[in-house]
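Kindly go through the following sequence and its backbone structure tokens. Advise at your convenience whether the structure tokens fit the sequence:

___
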Amino acid sequence: MQVLIFGNDLLKQKAKPIINIGPEYIKIAEDLLEILRSQKGIGLAGPQIGLMERIFATDISGDEPRIFINPSIVETSQETLKYEEGCLSIPGIYTDVIRPKTIKIQAWNEKGRPFNLETGGVLARVILHEYDHLEGILFIDRISEDRRNRIIEKFGKKKINEGGRH
């Protein structure tokens, strides 16, 4: 499995809920975490690898690896933070994004066990970023149109330049 790159239509589609969380999701969770680590990322959603189901993984330094299936954002703080984000599906591009400082989320793990989590900091940001992927939203959709257009142009030139080296 490979990470889909910006421009792939699947990245703009909404993922479907998982009806039965069976034993196969243990393997899917392992695959997500393996790809995430191989790409040196901290979050990866199913749609980024063409799996159009509501599942994502996080693996942040100082926190345990986590799997979120059918997540639901229960609450977000009114207080926000601006922080630089990047994305494995838009490699080499980084920009500041404003997101809530803290969140409450409900989800199921890869074994089908429900859990609730209240968190802030980098984990909250990564969860919101990956949740957006399940909704067909990219981090560049959360910035001004002007900045987004400049990033898309820069990314296009980067891809052309990289393509010229093959």
